[in-house]
C-alpha cells in the first residue's frame, strides 16, 4: 500500500476521504442529535433527480445534483417546518418523486450510462482535482459556520423551543442546516455513492453520542472515526480490488457492530 502513495489518484482519494470524514463528522453529528436522519436520507435519495437531469441534458453531474438537491431541500424545509406531524409523509413523497424523476430521465437518455455506477456506489479512486477543490471549499464553509454559530446550532439541535426563547432564528437556521446536509450529501456521493452516503453521515456520530459530553467533542470524535473507516476501507479496496464505497461502509458497519459489546465493557461515564 505504501508504494501506491506515489500515484496521484491515490493521493486524491486520501484527500477526498479526509474531507468527506470532516464533513460527515460535523454535519452527521447534527443530523443524529437533531433526530433528522430520515430527512437526510430523503435529501440523499431525492438528489438522484439531479443526476438524471445531468445525464439527460449532458450537464456536469455534481453541479446539477447539487442544484437539484438544494431546491428539493428548500421545499422539504418549507413543507415540514410547521407540519411536524406530517413531516415523514412529506419527506417520503419527495424522496420517491426525486428518485422516480431521476430514473425516468436516465431511462430516456440514449446509450448505456457506465458512469452512473460511480455515483450510485462511489468511486473515490476517480475523484479529480477539480472536485477536491469543491470539497475543500464546502468544508471551509461548514466549519466556519459551525464555529461562528455553534451556540445557535447547539440550541437548535437539543431544544428548539429554548432556542426560540433565546432569540435564535430557528426557521432560518433549520433551513441552513438542511441546505448544508444537501450540499454535504452531494459532495460525498463520489466517495461512497448515493446509496451508502447516509451510513457515513450517521454511523460514527451514533457510536460516539453516548460518550461525548458536548456537541463539539462529538463532532471531533466522529471525524476521527470516519477517518479510520475511510482509510481502512480504502486500503481494503486497493488490496482486494473491491468497490471503494462499499468497502468503506462495510468497515463502518463492522465498527458499529463491534461498538455494542464494547459499550457494555466500557460503559459511558455519567
Task: Give an overview of the whole structure.
The chain is mainly α. It has a single domain, classed as ABC transporter involved in vitamin B12 uptake, BtuC (Orthogonal Bundle). The protein has helices at residues 8-34, 37-46, 48-57, 61-80, 87-108, 116-121, 129-148, 150-158, 160-165, 170-192, 197-208, 215-240, 244-265. Helix 2 (37-46) crosses helix 4 (61-80) and helix 7 (129-148) runs antiparallel to helix 10. The mean pLDDT is 87.
* The CATH topology: ABC transporter involved in vitamin B12 uptake, BtuC
Low-pLDDT stretches: none
Protein structure class: mainly alpha
- Based on CA inertia axes, which overall geometry fits? globular
CATH architecture: Orthogonal Bundle
Question: What's the tally of helices?
Answer: 13
CATH class: Mainly Alpha
**The CATH fourth-level homologous superfamily:** ABC transporter involved in vitamin B12 uptake, BtuC
Please, how many domains?
Answer: 1
Taken as a percent bin, the fraction of beta residues is under 5%
How many DSSP E strands?
0
Give the CA-CA distance, first to last residue.
41 Å
Instruction: State the helicity in percent bands.
Output: over 70%
- Computed over alpha carbons, the radius of gyration is 18 Å
Order of helices and strands: HHHHHHHHHHHHH
pLDDT averaged over residues: 87
Largest pleated sheet: none
